[in-house]
C-alpha cells in the first residue's frame, strides 16, 4: 500500500509566499475608479507568483499533492466586480499548469463552506454555481481542467435532511456537466455523516473524499471500517486513487478546529483500517502548519514497523 501526502495552499517553509493575499470589496470601493483594476491585477499577480514558487518548492521536496488557494483572485465572484482575471495573466496561468504536469502534481481546489446546493433559496444555489464556475475557470486557465478536482460538502440540513438531500440532487442538475465531472464530495463535522455523504456520492457518481477528523467529530454511530471500501470504490471510474483528508483536533474543547500539527495517535486507527484494504491512496494534510505539519507526520509514520519511506512525502506500508 502506497500513500502520498500533500498540504493546503501555503508553504510555510518559504518566506513571504502566501498565495492568498486579499483585497476586500470595501478597500476596492474606496479606491479611485482608475486604480481599481490596477489593484486587482497587482494582488492577483503576486498570488500567482507565490503559487509558482510553491510549486517549485513542492517539486524539490517530491510533494505530489497540492491544493490551490481559493483566494488566488480577489473579488472574482463579487457581483459588482467579476472581472476578467484570465486574459491579463494568460502566460502565468499556463505556466502554473505546465509545472503541475511536468512535476506530476495532483491539483485540487476546495471552495468555502458557502458553496452548497441544499438551500431552498435560488440565489444561494446560483452563488454556488458561480463559485464552482470560478474554480473551474482557474483550472481551465491552467489547462488542467481534466486533472484538477473541486471538492465541496453537501451543505446544510435546514431542519430536514431528507428534503435537503433531495434539493441537493435537484440543484446539482443546474451545474454544467464538465464541472460536475471534476467534483468530489466530503463528509462534514456536524451535519452529513460518512454514510449520508457516501449515498449521495454513489447516486450522483461523484467520488467521495473521506475526512477522518470530521468523521470522528460526527460519527453518527458508524464504524468506518464497514464503509471505507465503499468510499474508496467511488473513485474507480475517475482513474485516480482515492483521496483522504487528515487533521487532528486543536483540543477537547475545540475538537472541530484543526491543530497546528497532526497527532499520529489520532490518525493511526484510520491508517490501520486502510492498511487492511491494501489499496493506494492520497492524503491531504489539513493542519495549520501546512507543509511543516505534513513533513513531520510523514516522518512519524515512517517510524512505524513495516513502513518504508519512498520519497520526502510518500510511504509504503
Describe the structure in your own words:
This protein has 317 residues and is an alpha/beta fold. Helix content is 42%, strand content 14%. It contains eleven helices and ten strands. The chain has helices at 25-30, 33-60, 90-102, 122-142, 161-172, 177-180, 194-204, 212-217, 228-233, 264-277, 290-302, and strands at 2-8, 65-67, 106-109, 149-153, 183-186, 208-211, 243-246, 281-285, 308-311, 314-316. Strands 1-2-3-4-5-6-7-8 form an eight-stranded parallel β-barrel. Helix 2 (33-60) runs parallel beside helix 3 (90-102) and helix 3 (90-102) packs across helix 4. The longest helix has 28 residues, at 33-60. It starts with a strand and ends with a strand. The mean pLDDT is 96.
What is the distance, rounded to the nearest whole angstrom, between the alpha carbons of the first and last residues? 5 Å
- Which overall shape is indicated by the principal axes computed on the Cα atoms? globular
What share of residues are in beta strands? Answer: 5-15%
Number of H- or I-type helical stretches: 11
Query: What's the arrangement of strands in the largest beta sheet?
Result: 1-2-3-4-5-6-7-8
Topology diagram in text:
Elements: E1 2-8, H1 25-30, H2 33-60, E2 65-67, H3 90-102, E3 106-109, H4 122-142, E4 149-153, H5 161-172, H6 177-180, E5 183-186, H7 194-204, E6 208-211, H8 212-217, H9 228-233, E7 243-246, H10 264-277, E8 281-285, H11 290-302, E9 308-311, E10 314-316
Parallel strand pairs: 1-2, 1-8, 2-3, 3-4, 4-5, 5-6, 6-7, 7-8
Antiparallel strand pairs: 1-10, 9-10
Helix pairs in contact: 2-3, 3-4
Amino acid at each position: 500500500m502506497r500513500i502520498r501526502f500533500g498540504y493546503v495552499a501555503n508553504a510555510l517553509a518559504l518566506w513571504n509566499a502566501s498565495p492568498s493575499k486579499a483585497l476586500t470589496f470595501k478597500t476596492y470601493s474606496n479606491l479611485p475608479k482608475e486604480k481599481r483594476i490596477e489593484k486587482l491585477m497587482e494582488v492577483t499577480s503576486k498570488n500567482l507568483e507565490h503559487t509558482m514558487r510553491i510549486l517549485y518548492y513542492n517539486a524539490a521536496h517530491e510533494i505530489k499533492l497540492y491544493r490551490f488557494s481559493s483566494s488566488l483572485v480577489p473579488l472574482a465572484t463579487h457581483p459588482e466586480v467579476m472581472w476578467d482575471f484570465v486574459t491579463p495573466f494568460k502566460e502565468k496561468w499556463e505556466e502554473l499548469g505546465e509545472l503541475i504536469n511536468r512535476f506530476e502534481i495532483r491539483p485540487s481546489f476546495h471552495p468555502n463552506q458557502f458553496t452548497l446546493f441544499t438551500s431552498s433559496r435560488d440565489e444561494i444555489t446560483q452563488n454556488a454555481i458561480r463559485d464552482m464556475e470560478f474554480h473551474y475557470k482557474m483550472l481551465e486557465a491552467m489547462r488542467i481542467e481534466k486533472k484538477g478536482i473541486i471538492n465541496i460538502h453537501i451543505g446544510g440540513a435546514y431542519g430536514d435532511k431528507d428534503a435537503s438531500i433531495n434539493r441537493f440532487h435537484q440543484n446539482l442538475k443546474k451545474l454544467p456537466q464538465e464541472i460536475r465531472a471534476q467534483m468530489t464530495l466530503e463528509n462534514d463535522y456536524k451535519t452529513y455523516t460518512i454514510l449520508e455523504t457516501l449515498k449521495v456520492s454513489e447516486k450522483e457518481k461523484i467520488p467521495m473524499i473521506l475526512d477522518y477528523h470530521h468523521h470522528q467529530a460526527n460519527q453518527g454511530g458508524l464504524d468506518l471500517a464497514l464503509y471505507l471500501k465503499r468510499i474508496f470504490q467511488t473513485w474507480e471510474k475517475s482513474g485516480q486513487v482515492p483521496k483522504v483528508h487528515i487533521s487532528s483536533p486543536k483540543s477537547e474543547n475545540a475538537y472541530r478546529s484543526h491543530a497546528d500539527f497532526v497527532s499520529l495517535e489520532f490518525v493511526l486507527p484510520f491508517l490501520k483500517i486502510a492498511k487492511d484494504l491494501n489499496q493506494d491512496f492520497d492524503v491531504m494534510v489539513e493542519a495549520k502548519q501546512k507543509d511543516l505539519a505534513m513533513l513531520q507526520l510523514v516522518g512519524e509514520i515512517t517510524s512505524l514497523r513495516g513502513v518504508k519511506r519512498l520519497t520526502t512525502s510518500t510511504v509504503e506500508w
